[in-house]
Amino acid sequence: MKKITYITIVALALSTTGWAQRTDVNYDESKVPAYTLPALLVTDGGQQVTTVAQWEQERRPEILEHFTSQMYGRTPTAHIPVRYEVLTEDPQALGGRATSRQVRLIFSNGQKTQEALLLLYLPNHVAGPAPMFVGYNFKGNHSTTLDTTILYSKNFALVKEPGHPDWERGCQTNRWAYEDIIGRGYGVATMCYHDIFPDKPGLKDHSVVSLFPGYGEGGRAPDEWQAIGAWAWGSSRILDYLATDPRVDMERVAIMGHSRQGKAALWAGAQDTRFKVVISNNSGAGGAALSRRKYGETIAIVSSIKPAWFCRALDQYHGREEAMPFDQHQLIALMAPRAVYVASAERDQWADPKGEYLAAYHAGPVYELYGLKGLPSLTMPAIHQPIMNDVGYHIRAGKHDVTAYDWQAFLDFADKHFEVSTVSP
């Protein structure tokens, strides 16, 4: 009975992507193929990397280019102007413990505009600039709180029909531990990911991608960026706004992403070193999990989701992950020397918890170059036994989700690396 229930849950989760009827997903550890990971500290030309300078000047750019050209796509370099409109500000939010602010980001290429709504909470009891968490929500800013003043995003009406349960205020408050975050002395900035790239087929014209030069012209290049690239770009634009606020400590900003946004958080962190702590929660294939394990979600599945999350070049590795010149331990290593945390859930086999742990473990040699500490062993820790080194990890009981336990671990990890002491209001 338990097995039937789990399969049903997986099928429902996949129904919108067209993979609900798949019967070839591997959840058997004995069927994981033998594999050899691509070298982390050997250049494409075969030179051993032994110093930080070699890593930063030679090997890191090579790895970044592999992920750019063959997985996430190439982020355009064109500048899209943005202006900010403060829509609301409440200095007595969360019972007086925080100041809330809603800001409209208006992106324009001179002919077309796209809007995104940012919801910001800053702790009132912290003297000086506050450290911050940045992260997307899935169901709109209104879903993260019961506050009736929180506005609905323009793009939300495109992805959810009237009367859908996701219109209900507070429908995902369980994923946003605002009281705990503020109580620990952190601010938090969130935005609905649909504002940047609506995650529904046929809505690309309503994404920020449509503002860039060349959009809609000619054939699609193999390395053309898609949704994950756009979401990562949008995370950096949230940072741009935070940099205008003197109440934000830009040297202490963490990005947290869950599921597909865990993938995007890693890609954002790889490209934008302003994120000083990078946290990936239940991110699976194309995120923290090793592709070569072919366990749960695979490259063939994840690169066939519509609208596309990954660039077209990734399609060449369907069923042949062993041919990839990169794997996700290298992505995690791109965060060094900044702190990175990977979180898994025991019942989230689709995301391959073991593959997530092993990728984080195998990123360790780069951290060692900096004199920092990775994960201590090839053996995963027990449930609810987090590791808080420069590379951190936990696996918790439960399913694919963001829980209060996760947030306590993320806050503990950030405290350690931002040297924040627990603050009482």
UniProtKB/TrEMBL annotation:
InterPro entries: AB_hydrolase_fold (IPR029058), GCE-like_dom (IPR054579)
Domain of life of the organism encoding this protein: Bacteria
Pfam families: GCE_fung
Domain 4-O-methyl-glucuronoyl methylesterase-like residue range list: 227-371
EC number(s) on file: 3.4.-.-
Alphabetic keyword roster: Hydrolase, Serine esterase, Signal
Signal listed as a keyword: yes
Top EC class of this enzyme: hydrolase
N-terminal signal peptide: 1-20
An example Gene Ontology molecular-function term: hydrolase activity
Name assigned to this protein: Alpha/beta hydrolase family protein
Source organism (scientific name): Parapedobacter deserti
